[in-house]
TrEMBL record:
Organism: Scophthalmus maximus (Turbot)
Residues in coiled coil: 43-70
Superkingdom field: Eukaryota
CC annotations in GO: exocyst
Name assigned to this protein: Exocyst complex component 5
Biological processes annotated in GO: exocytosis; Golgi to plasma membrane transport
Domain Exocyst complex component Sec10-like alpha-helical bundle: 93-641
Record-stated family: Belongs to the SEC10 family.
Gene from which the chain derives: EXOC5
KW Coiled coil (keyword) present: yes
C-alpha cells in the first residue's frame, strides 16, 4: 500500500489503518484464508511500512518548515508596508500641520514671535528637504506611486519647483549616449511623457519646463560647439552646419508639438529656437553673401586659370547704345579682334558649380531668413548669381566671341560665334530654370518680384543685343566667304562659253562650292539655335544669300547657252534654299529663277514672260536690267519691249 499524506486525512483510525495494512499483506490476515498465516512476512511488511512513514514524516516536516519561513517573511514584509503607510501618512499629516503653521507664522509680528517663527521655518525647510529626498529616492527606484504621493504633498510647498528640477535632472541621466542629440531628445520626451502625466498634477507645465531645460542646456551647448568651431575658420562648413542644425532643431520642435505643453506651445517652442539661434541668424545673410561672392570669384578664376587666360576688361556701354549701333549697323567698339582658337570661354562645369552654390544658398536663405526679410535676402543672392554667371561669364564670353569674329572680307574664316550662341543659350536655360524653380517661390508674393523680373529682363536684353550683333557679323562673314568663292571660282566665260554646242556641265563650279558652303552653315545654325531663333537667323541669312546671288548674276553678260547655265545655277541655288525651310527665302529664289528665264526666252516672247505670274509685280526697271545682260540685247533690239 503506497504511503501518502492522504492516508492520514481526518477522520483517522489507527486500528483500522493497521488492520487494513495486515489484510492487504499476503499471509498476514488474522483469519487465515487462501494462504496460511505468516508472521515473519507480516513483520517485514510492518517494518518496511514504518520506514516509509518515517520518510513521509521528514518530507512533511520540511514542507512545514518552508511554509512557516514563507509565512514569517510575508508577515515581516506586510509589517514593513504597514509601517511605510503609517510613516507616509505621518508625513502627510506633518506636512499639513507645518504648512498651516507656516502660513499662520507669516501673520505673526516678528518682534514678539521671532523665535517661534524661526522654529516653524526650520521645521518647514527640514520637512521640505526630507520630502524632496524621498521623491528623489522613489524616482531612482522607479516607484511611480510613491513619486506621485510625495509630489502631491510638495505641491503646496515652496520646494515643489525644486522637486520638478530634480525630476528633470534625473530623467536626463543616461539619456544622451548616441551621437545624435536631437534623436536622443525626441526619444527621451517620448519615454517620460506618460510618467510625467502619472506623477504630476500639471504635467503640461513639467513637460514644458523639461523641454526648456533641454533646449537651454543640452541643445544650446551642442549647437554652440558645432558652430563656433567653424565660424571663423571655414565659412562654407559653418553655413552648412547652421542650416543643418537649424533644420534639425525645427524638426524636433515639430515633433514636440505632439505633446501637451500648454495652450500656446508653438509660440513657446519658437521662442526657444530663437533664443538659441538669434545671434547666428542676425549675421547669416551677410556671411552668405560674402561666401558666395568669394566662392563665385574663385570658381571663375580657377576656370580662366585652367585656360591660361587673362581676363580682358570689357565694354560698359548701355543697352540703348548697343541697340542703336546695331540698328544703324555702325562699327561697334568691342575691342581689337582676337583669335580664340575655337575656344568659347563658356564652361558647363563652371555653370553647374555656380548654380549649385546658389541653389544651396537659396535653400539656406529660405530656412534661415526671417519671413519679412526673405524676399530681400533672396534678391541679394540672385544679384550675385547675375554678376558671376551672367556678367562675369556669359557676357564676358559674348564679348570675347564678338572680338573673335573675323572681318567680312576674311578668307577661310572659322566662325566660332555660333558655338558661343549655342552654349550661351543652354546656360541661360539653366539660369532661367533656377530663377523659376528656386527664386520665384521666395519672392512671388512680395514687391521684390518686380525688381527681380526687371533685372532678369535687363540681363536678357543685354545678352540678346550682343547675340544679335554677333549673329549679324557672323552672317556678314558667311556672305563674305560666299562672295570670295564666287570671286575666285566664277569665270566670265562660264556664261559666254566659246563653244555653245559643247557645254556638258549641269551647273558651274562656283555654284557647287557656294551651295556646299551654305549647306554647312545652315546645319551649323540649326545646331546652334532653338525655337523661333532658327527661322529668324536662317531668314536673314537666306535673304542676304539671295541678294548676293542676285547682285552677282548682274555682273555678267549671257549668251543663249550661258543663260541656260545661269538658270541651272539658280535652280541649284534654289534647291539649296529649300534647306532653309523658310518660305520667304524659297520665294525669292523662285523669283530669281523666273528672272533668269529672261536671259534665254525668245525676243518675241519677252513681253509675255514679263507678264507671267512670278514677274508681273516686279519693277519693270529690274526686268529691263536683266534683259540688258543678254549678249543679243542690242542686236535684237530688246529694249523696245520696255520703252
Amino acid at each position: 500500500m503506497a504511503t501518502t499524506a492522504q492516508l492520514f486525512e481526518e477522520p483517522f483510525d489507527a486500528d483500522e489503518y493497521i488492520e487494513r495494512l495486515a489484510w492487504r499483506t499476503p499471509g498476514g490476515g488474522s483469519k487465515g484464508g487462501a494462504e496460511a498465516f505468516d508472521p515473519k512476512r507480516l513483520l517485514d511488511e510492518f517494518e518496511n511500512h514504518i520506514e516509509e512513514l518515517k520518510q513521509l514524516d521528514e518530507r512533511i516536516q520540511r514542507r512545514v518548515e518552508k511554509l512557516e519561513h514563507q509565512c514569517h517573511r510575508e508577515a515581516k514584509e506586510f509589517a514593513h508596508k504597514v509601517q511605510d503607510l503609517q510613516r507616509s501618512n505621518q508625513i502627510k499629516e506633518a506636512a499639513d500641520i507645518i504648512q498651516k503653521l507656516h502660513l499662520i507664522a507669516q501673520e505673526l509680528p516678528f518682534d514678539r514671535f521671532a523665535d517661534v517663527k524661526a522654529k516653524i521655518a526650520s521645521k518647514y525647510h527640514d520637512l521640505e528637504r526630507q520630502l524632496i529626498q524621498e521623491f528623489t529616492a522613489a524616482q531612482r527606484r522607479g516607484e511611480i506611486g510613491r513619486m506621485r504621493e510625495v509630489a502631491a504633498v510638495l505641491l503646496h510647498f515652496k520646494g515643489y519647483a525644486h522637486c520638478v528640477d530634480v525630476y528633470i535632472k534625473q530623467c536626463q541621466e543616461g539619456a544622451y549616449l548616441r551621437n545624435d542629440v536631437f534623436e536622443d531628445t525626441a526619444g527621451l520626451i517620448q519615454r517620460v511623457n506618460k510618467q510625467v502625466g502619472e506623477v504630476f498634477s500639471s504635467p503640461e507645465t513639467v513637460m514644458a519646463k523639461l523641454i526648456q531645460n533641454i533646449f537651454e542646456n543640452k541643445l544650446q551647448a551642442h549647437i554652440k560647439e558645432k558652430l563656433d568651431e567653424t565660424r571663423h575658420s571655414d565659412v562654407e562648413q559653418y553655413l552648412k552646419n547652421l542650416y543643418d542644425l537649424y533644420t534639425k532643431t525645427t524638426a524636433l520642435a515639430t515633433k514636440l508639438t505632439e505633446f501637451n505643453l500648454g495652450s500656446d506651445k508653438h509660440t513657446f517652442l519658437s521662442k526657444l529656437i530663437k533664443s538659441i539661434f538669434s545671434s547666428y541668424l542676425e549675421s547669416y545673410i551677410d556671411m552668405e553673401r560674402e561666401y558666395l561672392r568669394t566662392r563665385g570669384a574663385m570658381i571663375l578664376q580657377r576656370y580662366y586659370d585652367s585656360k591660361n587666360h587673362q581676363k580682358r576688361p570689357i565694354g560698359t556701354g548701355s543697352i540703348q547704345e548697343l541697340k542703336e549701333r546695331f540698328r544703324q549697323r555702325t562699327n561697334l567698339a568691342l575691342g581689337p579682334s582676337i583669335d580664340t582658337h575655337g575656344e568659347t570661354f563658356l564652361s558647363p562645369e563652371l555653370v553647374v558649380n555656380l548654380l549649385q552654390e546658389t541653389r544651396h544658398a537659396f535653400e539656406r536663405c529660405h530656412r534661415l531668413s526671417d519671413p519679412s526679410d526673405l524676399p530681400k535676402n533672396a534678391f541679394s543672392i540672385f544679384l550675385l548669381l547675375v554678376d558671376h554667371l551672367c556678367v562675369e561669364h556669359i557676357d564676358y564670353a559674348l564679348e570675347i566671341g564678338l572680338s573673335a569674329i573675323p572681318s567680312s572680307d576674311a578668307k577661310n574664316a572659322n566662325l566660332y560665334f555660333l558655338d558661343v550662341v549655342q552654349q550661351a543659350n543652354s546656360i541661360f536655360h539653366l539660369f532661367d530654370k533656377q530663377f523659376n524653380d528656386q527664386l520665384m517661390p521666395l519672392i512671388s508674393s512680395s514687391p521684390k518680384l518686380a525688381e527681380c523680373l526687371h533685372k532678369k529682363k535687363e540681363v536678357i536684353e543685354q545678352m540678346e543685343v550682343k547675340l544679335d550683333i554677333g549673329i549679324d557679323r557672323t552672317i556678314n562673314c558667311m556672305v563674305g566667304q560666299m562672295k570670295h568663292i564666287l570671286a575666285t571660282e566664277q569665270k566670265k566665260t562660264d556664261f559666254r562659253p566659246e563653244d555653245e554646242n559643247n557645254v556638258m556641265i549641269q551647273y558651274t563650279t562656283a555654284c557647287s562650292k557656294v551651295c556646299a558652303y551654305v549647306s554647312r552653315q545652315v546645319e551649323h545654325v540649326r545646331k546652334s539655335m532653338d525655337g523661333k531663333n532658327v527661322d529668324t537667323v536662317l531668314t536673314e541669312l537666306g535673304v542676304r544669300f539671295h541678294r548676293l546671288i542676285h547682285e552677282h548674276l548682274q555682273q555678267y553678260s549671257y549668251s543663249s547657252m550661258g543663260g541656260m547655265l545661269a538658270i541651272c545655277d539658280v535652280a541649284e541655288y534654289r534647291r539649296c534654299a529649300k534647306d532653309f525651310r523658310v518660305p520667304l527665302v524659297l520665294q525669292l529664289f523662285d523669283t530669281l529663277h523666273a528672272l533668269c528665264n529672261l536671259l534665254v526666252v525668245a525676243p518675241d516672247n519677252l513681253k509675255q514672260v514679263c507678264s507671267g505670274e512670278q514677274l508681273t509685280n516686279l519693277d519693270r526697271n529690274l526686268l529691263h536690267a536683266f534683259v540688258q545682260l543678254r549678249v543679243d540685247y542690242r542686236s535684237a533690239r530688246l529694249g523696245r519691249h520696255f520703252s
